[in-house]
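PROTOCOL LOG
Step 1. Enter all chains and additional molecules of the complex.
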Amino acid sequence: MKVRTLLIGALAIALAAGPLALSALAQDKSIFIPLLVYRTGAYAPNGIPSANGFNDYFNLINERDGGINGIKIVFEECETQYDTKQGVECYERLKAKKPVLVNPFSTGITYQLIPKASVDKVVIHSAGYGMTASADGRWFPWVFNFPMTYWSQASAFVKYVGAQEGGMDKLKGKKLVHVYHNSPYGKEANPTLETLAKQFGFELTLLAVDHPGQEQKSTWLQIRRINPNWIYISGWGVMNQVAVKEAASIGFKMDHVVGNWWTGTEVDVIPAGDGAKGYKSMNFHAPGAGFKVHQDIFKHLYDKGNGAGRRDGIGEVLYNRTIINAMLDTEAIRLAMTKFGNKALTGEEVRWGMENLNITEKRLEELGMKGIMRPLRVTCENHEGNGLALVQQWDGKKWNVVSDWIEPMREIVRPKLEEAAVAEGGKLGYTKRDCSKEK
Amino acid sequence: MIYREAGQFKTTYGSDQAIFPILQDRIFVGLVLVAAALVPLVADEYWLQAILIPFLIYALAALGLNLLTGYAGQLSLGTGGFMAVGAYSAFKLTTAFPALNILVVFLLSGLIAAGVGLVFGVPSLRIKGFYLAVATLAAQFFLIWLFNKVAWFVNYAPSGTITAPPRTVLGVMVTGPQSSAGVRYFVALGFVVVFALVAKNLVRGRIGRSWMAIRDRDIAAEIIGVRPLQTKLLAFGVSSFYCGIAGAELVFLYLGSAETLAFDIGLSFLVLFMVIIGGLGSVLGSFLGAAFIMLVPIFLTNAPHTLGLNLPVALQKQMELMVFGGLIIFFLIVEPQGLARLWQITKEKLRLWPFPH
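Step 2. Run joint prediction.
Step 3. Record the structure below.
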């Protein structure tokens, strides 16, 4: 009886005091970047290496260089479970610490945060995900999705298929299936694929897989009936492993199954064992731990026991992706400092840095990232940058790059994208800004 | 001593039948309302945006489900689906008629949800108990599938998300990114207060009594003249109306934009848990249950930070889930009738205090 009263009393106090428990604000001489991560739940297999990449790169900057020009990066993780409601709660909680930039790391959460960004003056960087239309910087000044968008990616995939079939004209009459996660993320590529299907005359079938994607038997039965020439997968989390396994189990030619760049990391293919051999996926950077930046991470973090993850996880596809993502963020902040001075910057100042970002081959070499990605240039109109895609293939042990850099069909994607930006921007009551007036 | 009705004489039927017949209760409720009105002055945006607004919205949804499950005894797992109906109708209505007052849009989308609820309530005449739960589960899956499948509901947005457009009421921005959290809080509060009052009066009157008669023994209720079809359907209609408004609010006042995943089966269970933990058949219980389910996880996330423990987020999340699950079981064991019953026991104890017999 006593324990009961005590517990109930404690709970009542907890309820009242709970949300007050917010830690102190970040210091003056630092830049705060919130990290929305998911280390638990159905998306954890992909969430963990991604989160580790961010941690390691920011820690590296702080350890090796003492921050960006002496200004430390302060970051804090918040668990979202890839759930939009929890993501919003995280964002609101961490907003009190005056973040300059946020990487939502979920297309669903990006959609939630886009309307808030311009009001709160926080830059959103959805690197290779998020709302494709936000690549039109005239409508979405606060949102950046460089180095590439879903639509560009899908067009690069079709181009790759064309090349494999021996010319774009050979696509006529071919059957393509898009297996996608039934969420804003998975649906992103559909309009582009539909446009290209009309233009090149291939048959496109769209097959949705519901969250979390553990059950795909019926989808793959349907695929067996359709017997397509190529399969494109837009999956995430547990769905990826299941899709690769199912593709292998129906005996489909694995080198004709191509995942998008969120459907092609080590944990996605290893569970399928030998069956996954030959499976391909898109990418916008190189896999592997053979770059100088990785040596720095070993030396400054892991050798001292300060690494965020396992030593052998370094160089995984998603790990590399998030160190690149973190690098782009820190470089934008560095650029902004050249204009505004070496101090704790505001969101507006970082936004300028993002918009004028120009990562040259020389800069990549200085960063120890030569060859891991291509030079990148962002402009006021184009928040997608000039990224190119490539195709990587799983050989049973590691990912190998099997294609040249593929130029997306910008002439098809960009007009559609601008059209969508008008619609999406209109929904939020935005107006188009004049980029020639930007400094 | 403090909480005692001695000396308060009821001289009219009206005062005897009042919602809060005891003076202390009236004072307490009055204080709560005043406090609720003053909250935006002291609370920061995180409090309003991430805690209080969703709390009010979930409380409204729990209230709706409580009318159906707690008072009329019809177990429903379709809450998420009915909330989605409200959200998507509000989106369709406000994009088709931008000039329409957004508060009217909320009410209309509640009515549309009520209509859908009526349709899915028809089987309740023949199906009872767990079987009805399965039938309403079908409603949940069907509705979510429908909104996912038919692009018309999202105005052909390629991503399939609905976004709350900016709308003003009397010149004040109520929805959209530019609206202040305080305004949205007051809108949510207004809806909850009005509809809690409506619910309280519904359940005290003829309709509520017929619901409870059906819940306690439907055959007996039928013999004394309660018509099962109309009564059950009314419960489904009213409940879906509440859930529909809550769904519209969830998108327009809280999330800003949403996909169908926001209304998946998890939401139905969440609201059902609120009702069960708060207390079946209690208006107050809906609020207490919503507070418990909403606030405890947030507290558990923040608690290690306050204590200075720097736990990894994954561990923290797992601990949160474990402790939260443990608390649910604890409360169901100590008081199966919910937090509302605990409150009632406290009140009875207070009446005797300090001279218990």
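Step 4. Note key features.
Chain B has a mean pLDDT of 90.
Chain B touches chain A through 52 residues (CB under 8 Å).
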